[in-house]
Design brief:
nine-stranded antiparallel beta sheet; 2% helix; 925 residues; mainly beta; single chain
Length: 925
Amino acid sequence: MRRSRGLTAALVLSLAGVGTGIGLVLMPQASAITPPVAFTADELPTWQPDGIVFAMAQANGTVFAGGTFSAVRPPEGAAGAEQEAVNFVALDAATGKPTSCKLAFTIGDGTATVRTLVVSKDKKTLYAGGYFGAVNGTPVSSLAAIDIESCTPKASFHPGFPATVRGLAVTDDTLYAAGDFNAVDGQTRERFAAVDAGTGALKPFVANVDEPGRAVEVTPDGKNVLLGGDFFTVNGSNSHALAVVNATTGAVTKTYTNIPSNSVVKDISTDDTGFYTGHEGSGGGVFDGRIGLRLSDFTEKWRDRCLGATQFVLPYQGVLYSSSHAHDCSTELEFPDGKRNFLLAQPTNHDGAAPAPVDGFVRGPGKLGWHPTANDGLGEGIGPRVMAVADKNDVKYLWVGGEFTLINGKAQQGLTRFASTGDIGAPTTPVASAASVKPGEAQVRWRTSYDADDSKLTYRIYRNGSATPAATVTAGSLEWERPQASWNDTTVKAGQTYTYRVTATDDAGNTSALSAVATVTIPTTVQTYPNQVRQDGANLYWRYDDAVSPYVADSSNGGNTSGVQFNAPALRQTPGAVSGASTAMGFNGTSQLVHGDRRQSVGNTFTVETWFKTNTTRGGKLIGFGNNTTRSSGSNDRHIYMTNTGRLVFGVYNGSARTVSTGLFETYNDNKWHHVVGTQGPGGITLYVDGQNKGSLNATSNSTYAGYWHAGGDNLSGWPTRPTSNFFAGQLDETAVYPTALTQAQVKNHFDLAKAPTDSVSAVKATEDTYINQGAPSTAYGTSTSLAVRGTSAYETYLRFNLPAAPAGQVLKSASLQIKTSTQAGAGTADTVSVVPVTGTWSGAGTTFNTKPTLGTTPLGTIAGVPDGSAVHSVELDTAAVSAVLGGGYSLGLTSTGTDPLWIWSSESTAAEGTPQLVLTFGAK
């Protein structure tokens, strides 16, 4: 059995900032600490097999590895020749080189494999199980005993197992086996059995199960045996995948019915106080993670529900090391569905009180800062499969076997190892920036670095090229969570320029390179817009002034929600939305976004705010909250998105989508900067655009889930008026999130402080409309609910509007005609439709083809083809021509020279958004 050394180290959240009397240290709370991880993540040179390692054990400084392979070779780039190794190799724990012990596990028919190895308590005998018929020519039957000192099989040990043995556990006198067999030595033993550890004679232990056994372990007191596998019954009692039985008789001690039916137990390990299971499954509702259970009563302590089949669990000095391909630990409030994480570590017990159960289970202890990387590799593409801890010359080594072909990005097949000393890997170089929005203060901030075996790092900030740090900050980070850390320099002087560089150092003293220089000039007066955003309490503030990828600085007071650029959005776009030198970020509308670097929960009171500029007709999400980072979020709300026509929608989800949107003709895809804010609080949700309230809804709650803020894109599936694209094409600036609901006065103040142009929009509905039909030349269509346009045979549509005069001090900046295609089949057209002035007289009741009015010859605008399907379409019009007729009645005609008709709704239609309208935008002269 695998046993830990019994040391359970307490988790201590440690964050300290030590300045030099020159400012306030601002930093995030660490999500994990470096202790009690016992091994570095730096791989050591190790000989490697040409196949897959399924089993490992160790004794006296030697590591035994079994599996399906035929040879071993030196590590990449090392000297030495390949050696034959038939499904087994013995290696020196300290050097990683093969020893003189050579054993060949073979079979006459089929493919031999070694699936499990265990060493006797006195370290003299190695037991091997799998599917094989001989060891170095000595006949055996899928189970063998090896004398370690002489490296020879014990011929007298010959129990008959007719099928694969997958798991072994040993006491002083008994060897327990798990596997696919239904009998041993001709006697019924279904998937679990016990034999004498010395002679191999079958024991009376009976624990029959109905499906394969994969794991077996003995409790430390020797009284019970832990069974794991695929089974659903044990000795006739219902118990799926896991059971506890009496070590002598096999009588059932404890059954389990709370493991999903599509999941199995792949491994079981024990330490002094508990036992731990690793699980694998397939299909919906699968359980792929780990369970920690008590030895006192065999009840569950916690359940880690990460997805990604767990192959092996190894408790050692209070830490549970595991091999898996975990790709989604959302239930553990850790990384979302994404890349595979093959080697993980977490405490065996919660520090202090365990968290409250969620969905009936206590969440597993949080992952620690140990994160070597691997890959899927060969065979099933599982990656690492097995682990063992060996020691030699007072150094401990964690060995890992499996089917991987890469370790830490370097070629290494099937075997690797990590030592308890010799940490040589430095943290990644911090990505730093600096900013100042008022005299007397500069904020230096950086994305926390990543170190594969240290989650608590020390940062030193150097100012103006000095070799002595101006401040020291300690902050925590993990590979999948690297929140911003920051420090405020309060000794800076207005009008002066300062430079800063940052380094990261781990507990072993390994130090990163200096960050690139971050330069800031301290203003002589307060920068009103960003200062107000900070004063109003933003806890996320992305200004998009960053010069390098992938970091987006959080400019909020003490903020730790920096952003990560995905797929390289365009940096430092000018001009930005607010006055001054601040820049914007550009997004391509197909794949680019920014997501927060810190998983968090957001309550029922918040504000989201951003500036945007676009001319897209595909819509997209501007800002929102979702449970993933770079993949599409399954849970998503608290967002503002644009429709295809340029309308804005703010929504939350509380069992159904609750949204507020701008009006049909309040569209904002005019390639100008606009300010949009969405708030939720006790009064519900409210949408503001350019400082104006656009509507509210009594929705005071939203979905409860942990997630990340996004800008520029995320899932919009299922949301009303969903645009063509989830991604926004255009520029974003000054994105902020607040833990409060901003008031209308605060929103208006932000808009005013930015000095953005204040445009006004008038939507003017048609007061009368009709069309003429050459095929019915005497018929008037003034009461028709639809209108038509075609060249041959002719349809022409006429629209009448009462145009307002321009507001005082403003002029017409743009004009467009908006129409909506009807729902009839083929309502769109492949032809170009022209909008022209009507110069003659007409009426809806009296105008026919025979009395049609004369039309102007110069088009005011055209639309080249309209797709089928009922939708709103816009035709930009000649601004000067429309300006000349403001303040009076005006008629427009729609004509075509083609043969493919266009059908649109008329003012008589009851279709939503169906009435033709002019959209007039007025702005300052």
